[in-house]
From TrEMBL:
The chain crosses the membrane at residues 12-30, 60-85, 91-113, 143-164, 184-203, 215-234, 303-327, 362-384, 404-424, 430-448. Belongs to the alanine or glycine:cation symporter (AGCS) (TC 2.A.25) family. It is found in: Cell membrane. It comes from the Bacteria. This is Amino acid carrier protein. GO terms for cellular component: plasma membrane. Keywords: Cell membrane, Membrane, Symport, Transmembrane, Transmembrane helix, Transport. GO terms for molecular function: amino acid:sodium symporter activity. It is a multi-pass membrane protein.
Amino acid sequence: MTDILTTIDSIVWGPAMIALLLGTHVYLTFRTGFIQRKLPAAIRRSVHRDPDGKGDISSFGALATALAATIGTGSIVGVATALLAGGPGAIFWMWIAGLFGIATKYVETYAAVKYRVRDRRGQMMGGAMFVWKRAFARPDGTVPWWATLGAVAFAAFAIIATIGTGSAVQAAAISGIVTSSIPAIPAVAVGLVIVVAVAAVIFGGVNSIARVCEWLVPVMAGAYALGCLVIMAMNAPVLGQAVGLILECAFTAKAAFGGAVGSGMIMALQFGCARGLFSNESGLGTAPIVAAAAKTRNPADQALISMTGAFWSTGVICLLTGLVLVSTMIAHPEIGQEILADPSVATGAALASAAFAEIPVFGTPILVLGMCSFAYSTILGWSYYGNRCVAYLFGPKGIKPYQIVYVAVAFFGAIGVGDVVWTISDIGNALMAIPNIIVVLLLSGMIARETRHFVYEGHLDEEYAEPVPVVDKAQL
């Protein structure tokens, strides 16, 4: 089964998917007039609360929830596994994917906010499934079969991905780091704690999730970044060598770390892009689901705020992790050849643990707390994504059963899920990305025109003219 899943994973994340993903990122970068240059202004807007905006949660709350879902194990273990499987060059391609992915995050969020709806309880609903249905609806209200297919495919694949990426994988990461650091604590106990901690938040809905993420994300990301900077300072003599090795391995087949890790450009590109998407979700279509619930005056405002998430997750956190790992492996070549022998989730976690263990006394606790808080916040964020997709497919009555299954899977993940679920998550991410990428490409011309008006012509505080419609299950 593992061999079959690995084969499928290599196919869906093969050259065609890489070309589609990177091609979309680059195309939308130029289509939006290199929207990345608005990043400083977008960061400033992300901490500004707009009481007059229409939505359920603050813009920062939506960003924090999306970041909670993205700054997870992919930012630590995902970077380590990409390094081991694709070589140091994978770090470069992960960062490039994140840089160009900022434009895709902007466009997909713009579409989600523009085509969002309210349910009968007054709650905002948005995402690629609503974009497909509303953007291509005929004047008489009917929707072409292909648009319906795109909507259903995205929602269905997203639900599957949330179970793996959002629940099982993250719970397994928490359990693995806790039980390896404190062997006296059994995995079952960790699983039960996860169940209680997750259930206490997600059953309260998006407002409950956003409140937790608003304070948890800045604290956990700041503490982890500080730990990374300390290690980089300790490895300062070889930091330049680490940067050079990353750049060299991105374009050559050079072996690294005494020949223990070697890979060509294609492998570096493949694993870098795969982990880049896993870490920032640009093109995946998940972050726009929660962005659609934000209080905002127009789609461009929230799209700018949301695109900063790709910068923070990949442009900062993943880059820091990559530099820490590569410089540590150069500075301490004795760090287990057994770690380098098998690129897997377990060895990736072991590599990250070895790097942070270089900080006396505080290193391991920082990593343990960082991994646990990152993974926990990811569980919370992805639960909302699945919540909205279930509501789209089955109506409000499907939400509670989904939440129960989601929490249960987290428990089972904590007591024994590893590389198989990680591989399934990779496959699910690719399959849900395809309908999302297609729809944003189809709408990119319209979004580019409206972006010129709102962003480049200075109308970001303008109220969007189109009202948010209210729908019931029969209209979804």
